[in-house]
């Protein structure tokens, strides 16, 4: 991440770019400054950010071959993803875009992991 994003849109756009480029650790770091100061708020949007961070962690763990830990982090993402349906926010369209990207990336990583297991 070259410059520090200042808002929700900027942080989320940086997250999308990092995920798209397979830089999952960086994706986690893109949202951390947004989520961390607000992590104790009773706010579903903040919880959704935590879910997105967990998806990035899941992908990074999968990349490192830590299948069980990756699956656990993905389950945490799914728990928070369910909040998106009823979330009222001006950023909902962006969050839906992120969720679609995460689902696609998860499918690719799972297919890749299954393929590598069958090639042993």
TrEMBL record:
Pfam families: DUF309 (PF03745). It comes from the Bacteria. Gene3D superfamilies: TTHA0068-like. This is DUF309 domain-containing protein. It comes from Sulfuricurvum kujiense (strain ATCC BAA-921 / DSM 16994 / JCM 11577 / YK-1). The lineage of its organism: Bacteria, Pseudomonadati, Campylobacterota, Epsilonproteobacteria, Campylobacterales.
